[in-house]
From TrEMBL:
Cofactor: FMN; [4Fe-4S] cluster
SUPFAM superfamilies named in the record: FAD/NAD(P)-binding domain (SSF51905), FMN-linked oxidoreductases (SSF51395), Nucleotide-binding domain (SSF51971)
CDD domains registered for this protein in UniProt: DCR_FMN
Name used for this protein in its record: NADPH-dependent 2,4-dienoyl-CoA reductase
Annotated coiled-coil segments of the chain: none
Domain FAD/NAD(P)-binding residue range list: 376-651
InterPro entries in alphabetical order: Aldolase_TIM, FAD/NAD-bd_sf, FAD/NAD-binding_dom, NADH:flavin_oxidoreductase, OxRdtase_FMN_N
Encoding gene, per UniProt annotation: fadH
Length: 671
C-alpha cells in the first residue's frame, strides 16, 4: 500500500473508520438554497464514493440565536429531520460515514439576536451580542443535546461539536470574551464547564454508540487566549465525559495570523496536535493546509496525529482518497489554498465552489456527458482556461488539439507560481498536464496557430484562450528600458535595483511588491514562517503568540494607485488582510490618488493631492492591468469557423483563474 498509515482503518470501539482521512467541515451555501439538500446529498455522495473515511458537514445551529446568519440552517425540531435524511442516505449508499457539525456562532452571528457569554462585540461582525442569562446557558446546552438526538434520528453517524475558531463555546472558554462572575465564568474550571456540560448532555441523549467529535481550539492565536495548560485540562475533561475524537482547531476568525491561506506552509500546525498526543488517549485529528496524501501520511506516520482533516482538498477533488489508494497521487486535483471560490463565496453569502474544480457543489448541474456529435476542436492558448476546456471537452469525446506558442503550459499560472507563497500553483499545472495526457489531448507546444493550419486540418470549432498582455502606459519617458512590466520581472528578463515604484495596486501590484521584498519564500520554511507571524511553538504566552520576527528591509518599494480608495480594496475578502500585512511588514510605502506624469533620470514624476513629487527610483514596474490578447481573433474569424473566447482574452479584468476555468468547463458542456 502506497500510504499505509493514512489508509489504515481506525477502530473507535463501537465502529470502525476505513481510513484516517476526515473531510473537514465546510459551509457550502447549499444548506440554505431551495432544494439545496438534494444538491448537498450529491456533493457528499461523491466524496463518500471517493473513499473518505469520515465526513463532517458544514455548521448547523442548535437554535435560532446561534445561526450564523438570519436564514442559516439549524436542526432543532423533528420536522427538520427529513431533509437531513436525504444527505445521510446518499452517503451511506456510497459506503461512507457522516457526522453533523453543531455550531452556535455566539458573537460571530450576523444578526441582531446574537448572544454570547458577555456583552462584547466581535471586531468582525456588526452586532453587539446580549449576555446570556443562566437560564439561556442551560437552555442552549439542552439545545445542543436535542440537535444531536435529531441528528441521530436523521441517520448521522455522529456529531462534531464546534468548540474552536472563536465561536460560542470558544467564547465561554476564554477570559478574553467571558467576563461572567457566575458559575459559567471566572476561573477556568467554571469557563470550561459550558463545553463539558454540552458533551455530557449529548452523550446522555445519543447513547454510547454514536461518534462525538469535539473541535478543540488548541491554538487561539489571539491575545488573552487559552494557555497550553488550559488546552490540556479541557482535552482531558472532554475525554472523561465521553468524546470519541478530538479535532484540532487553529485560530479565531478575528486572529491576525493566517491559518489556511495558500501562503501558510503545508501542515504548519501539526506540531500543536502532536504536543497534545501524549496527554490524551482518544484519537486526535491534525488539520490546516494538509492537501496531499504524502503530507497526510507523514503526519500520521510520524506520530503527530491519528487522523488528518482536509476540507478544501475535497472541493478540489472528490476522488482524493481513491487516487491515493490506487497510488496515483499525480492525478489528484490539488487544493491550492486560494480561498477565491470557497471561503470568499461563503462570506459573500454565495454558494461555495472551487477555483480548480468548478463542479464542486454543482454536481447536479455541471457534468461532462458524452457529446451527441464528436467534433474536432482547436484550442489556442494553454493557460488555465485553455487547459480546462481541453480536458473537459475531451472527456465528452471530442478530438482536441491544444496549441501553445510558448514552450510550456500554464499561462499566467507560470508567473503566479513564482510569487512567494503561491508555490501551490505548480500543482494545478501538474494536474492539468496529467489530465491532458490521460484524455488524449494533442498538445503542440512552441506552435503559433494560423488560419492555414485550421483549414488544412479540418477543425469544426476554434476556442481562443490566448490570455492577456500587460497594459502599457503612454507617458513621457516610459519608453525607457528602466520602465518594465510585471511579466518581464517575473520571467527574469530584467534585474531590479534597490528603489522601485510599482504602478497599480491591484492583485498584480501586491504580488509584485511581495516578490521584490521577500528574498526567500517563508512558505517553504515553516519555522521561519511561524516566527514571521509571531507563532510561538513553546506556547509561553496565552494564545500561542509571540513578537513577530520580521526581515530587515532590503529594498525601497513604492506601491502607487490612481484611485483614492483604500489600497487593496479589491483583494479577496478572506486573504486581502494577509497581503496588506505582508507589505506593511516589508515597509512598502503605499500612495493613493496618484497622477503619473513622466519618468527620467531624476525618477518618477507624480502628482498627489495636487502636490508634485519626484520619487527617486531606479525602475518603474507597470502593474496597471492588462488587455485581451486578441492578435489572432480576426484571422481566425476569417476562416468562417465558429470562434469562442474564454478566459482573459474574453474579459481582461483582474487576472481571474476562477472565471477562466469555469468558462472552460461551461463551454465544454455546450459544444
Amino acid at each position: 500500500m502506497a500510504f499505509p498509515h493514512l489508509l489504515s482503518p481506525l477502530d473507535l470501539g463501537f465502529t470502525q473508520l476505513k481510513n484516517r482521512v476526515l473531510m473537514g467541515s465546510m459551509h457550502t451555501g447549499l444548506e440554505e438554497e431551495k432544494g439545496g439538500f438534494e444538491k448537498l446529498a450529491a456533493f457528499y455522495k461523491e466524496r463518500a464514493a471517493g473513499g473518505v473515511g469520515l465526513i463532517v458537514t458544514g455548521g448547523i445551529s442548535p437554535n435560532m440565536r446561534g445561526r450564523l446568519a438570519p436564514h442559516a440552517c439549524q436542526l432543532s425540531f423533528p420536522w427538520q429531520v427529513s431533509k437531513h435524511k436525504v444527505v445521510t442516505q446518499a452517503v451511506h449508499e456510497a459506503g461512507g460515514k457522516i457526522c453533523m457539525q453543531i455550531l452556535h456562532a455566539g458573537r460571530y452571528s450576523y444578526h441582531p439576536f446574537s448572544v454570547a457569554p458577555s456583552k462584547k462585540k466581535s471586531p468582525i461582525t456588526p452586532f453587539t451580542p446580549s449576555a446570556m442569562s443562566d437560564r439561556q446557558v442551560k437552555g442552549t446546552i439542552n439545545d445542543y443535546a436535542t440537535s444531536a438526538k435529531l441528528a441521530k434520528k436523521a441517520g448521522y453517524d455522529g456529531v462534531e461539536v464546534m468548540g474552536s475558531e472563536g465561536y460560542l463555546i470558544n467564547q465561554f472558554i476564554c477570559a478574553r470574551t467571558n467576563e461572567r462572575t457566575d458559575d459559567w465564568g471566572g476561573s477556568f474550571d467554571k469557563r470550561m464547564r459550558f463545553p463539558i456540560e454540552i458533551v455530557k448532555a449529548i452523550r446522555a441523549k445519543v447513547g454510547q454508540e454514536f461518534i462525538i467529535i469535539f473541535r478543540l481550539s488548541m491554538l487561539d492565536l489571539v491575545d488573552n487566549g487559552s494557555s497550553w495548560d488550559e488546552v490540556v485540562k479541557l482535552a482531558k475533561a472532554l475525554e472523561e465525559v465521553g468524546v470519541t475524537i478530538i479535532n484540532t482547531g487553529i485560530g479565531w476568525h478575528e486572529a491576525r495570523v493566517p491559518t489556511i491561506a495558500t501562503s501558510v506552509p503545508r501542515a504548519a500546525f501539526a506540531w500543536v496536535t502532536e504536543r497534545l498526543k501524549s496527554e490524551v488517549n482518544v484519537p486526535l485529528v491534525a488539520t490546516n493546509r494538509i492537501n496531499t496524501p504524502e503530507i497526510g501520511e507523514n503526519v500520521i506516520a510520524s506520530g503527530q496525529a491519528d487522523m488528518v482533516s482536509m476540507a478544501r482538498p475535497f472541493l478540489a477533488d472528490a476522488e482524493f482518497v481513491n487516487k491515493a489508494q490506487e497510488n496515483t497521487p499525480e492525478l489528484i486535483n490539488t487544493c491550492i489554498g486560494c480561498n477565491q471560490a470557497c471561503l470568499d463565496h461563503t462570506f459573500a453569502m454565495k454558494r461555495a465552489t472551487c477555483l480548480v474544480n468548478p463542479r464542486a457543489c454543482y454536481e447536479t448541474e455541471i457534468n461532462f456527458t458524452p457529446a451527441s456529435q464528436r467534433k474536432r476542436i482547436a484550442v489556442v492558448g494553454a493557460g488555465p482556461a485553455g487547459m480546462a476546456f481541453s480536458v473537459y471537452a475531451a472527456m465528452r469525446g471530442h478530438i482536441v488539439v491544444l496549441f501553445e506558442a510558448k514552450s510550456e503550459v500554464g499561462g499566467q499560472f507560470n508567473l503566479a507560481r513564482k510569487i512567494p507563497g503561491k508555490e501551490e500553483f505548480n500543482e494545478t499545472i501538474r494536474y492539468f498536464l496529467e489530465q491532458l495526457k490521460r484524455h488524449d489531448v494533442e498538445l503542440r507546444l512552441n506552435t503559433r496557430l494560423d488560419a492555414s493550419v485550421l483549414q488544412a486540418e479540418s477543425f469544426d470549432e476554434v476556442v481562443m484562450s490566448t490570455g492577456v498582455i500587460p497594459r502599457k502606459l503612454d507617458l513621457p519617458g516610459f519608453d525607457s528600458d528602466k520602465v518594465v512590466d510585471y511579466q518581464q520581472v517575473l520571467q527574469g528578463s530584467v534585474a531590479l535595483g534597490q528603489k522601485v515604484a510599482l504602478i497599480g495596486a491591484g492583485g498584480i501590484g501586491f504580488d509584485m511588491a511581495h516578490f521584490i521584498c521577500e528574498q526567500e519564500s517563508t512558505t517553504l520554511n515553516p519555522d521561519k514562517w511561524l516566527k514571521q507571524w509571531g507563532i510561538d511553538k513553546t506556547y509561553a504566552a496565552r494564545g500561542g503568540l509571540a513578537e513577530p520576527e520580521l526581515e530587515a528591509k532590503h529594498k525601497q518599494v513604492y506601491l502607487l494607485q490612481r484611485k483614492t480608495s483604500k489600497i487593496g480594496k479589491g483583494l479577496g475578502k478572506t486573504t486581502g488582510w494577509i497581503h496588506r500585512s505582508v507589505l506593511k511588514n516589508h515597509q512598502v510605502e503605499s500612495m493613493t490618488g496618484v497622477q503619473y506624469q513622466s519618468f527620467d533620470e531624476q525618477g518618477l514624476h507624480i502628482v498627489v493631492n495636487d502636490s508634485p513629487q519626484t520619487l527617486d527610483v531606479d525602475q518603474v514596474v507597470v502593474c496597471a492591468g492588462q488587455e485581451s490578447n486578441r492578435e489572432l481573433q480576426q484571422e481566425l474569424l476569417d476562416t468562417g469557423l465558429p470562434v469562442h473566447l474564454i478566459g482573459g482574452v474574453d474579459v481582461a479584468a483582474e487576472l481571474d483563474a476562477k472565471r477562466a476555468i469555469r468558462q472552460g468547463a461551461e463551454l465544454a458542456m455546450q459544444l
